[in-house]
Automatic annotation (TrEMBL):
GO annotations of cellular component type: plasma membrane
Keywords, ordered alphabetically: Membrane, Transmembrane, Transmembrane helix
Originating species: Brevibacillus reuszeri
PANTHER family, per the entry: AT30094P (PTHR14969:SF13), SPHINGOSINE-1-PHOSPHATE PHOSPHOHYDROLASE (PTHR14969)
GO molecular-function term, one example from the UniProt record: undecaprenyl-diphosphatase activity
InterPro entries according to UniProt: PAP2/HPO, PAP2/HPO_sf, UPP_Pase
Alphabetical list of Pfam families matching this protein: PAP2 (PF01569)
Protein name: Bacitracin ABC transporter permease
Signal peptide (residue range): none
Ranges annotated as spanning the membrane: 27-49, 56-82, 102-121, 128-145, 151-169
Domain Phosphatidic acid phosphatase type 2/haloperoxidase: from-to ranges: 62-166
Length: 199
């Protein structure tokens, strides 16, 4: 099999599971469409713990996403494929969207950017972050909007970006200075609660 035939073969393997096990379709639809809100909430919660290391982690994850998205758009200029539901017959399509270039997967880039960044900072929870990213990637195939190659390339771009950012960004003086200025302004507006002694 050539590359495109393999891509279609593995797409069918995953996407056809929705026909074999239709009871799982709502689960994968939810993962594909709504876990992005959960990820945003998690990032906000980490930020507002007001812990310096958590904020550096969120900053790194955000920079990773921006970098990976730029690289993804560049990759998309060298290869084009529409969503599987637009190119193939009898797709288990659970998400309806406009037809455009689905290579690489933006959802996968987003989740792998944040989840791999979180994994690098929180190695004890690493398997959970990795599983979340993988499940989101698989869900995008399950609902019929991406090929496996779209997901795989998005994941690889994000992993490479996360590693580069993790090694470079936390020690940059400009990042530390900007965060210190933000935290100083935050303390002026929202003073941290002080513990009071009980009587």
């Amino acid at each position: 099999m050539n590359g495109m035939e393999m891509n279609i073969h593995y797409f069918r393997m995953i996407n056809d599971l929705g026909k074999q096990y239709p009871a799982l379709n709502p689960v994968f639809f939810f993962i594909a469409e709504y876990t992005v809100y959960l990820l945003a909430l998690i990032a906000l919660l980490y930020w507002f713990t007001r812990k310096h290391e958590n904020r550096i982690m969120v900053i790194c994850a955000t920079i990773t996403f921006v970098l990976a998205e730029i690289l993804g758009k560049i990759a998309g200029t060298f290869h084009y494929n529409a969503q599987p539901f637009a190119e193939l017959a009898d797709v288990n399509q659970l998400v309806f969207k406009a037809v455009d270039n689905s290579f690489p997967s933006d959802h996968t880039i987003l989740f792998f950017s944040f989840c791999i960044s979180f994994l690098l900072f929180q190695k004890k929870k690493g398997i959970l972050w990795l599983l979340l990213a993988i499940f989101v990637g698989i869900s995008r195939i399950w609902v019929g909007v991406h090929y496996p190659a779209d997901v795989l390339v998005g994941a690889l771009i994000s992993i490479g970006s996360a590693l580069a950012v993790y090694m470079l960004v936390p020690n940059l003086r400009i990042v530390q200075v900007c965060l210190e200025l933000y935290e100083k302004a935050e303390r002026a507006v929202l003073p941290a609660k002080t513990k009071t002694k009980g009587y």
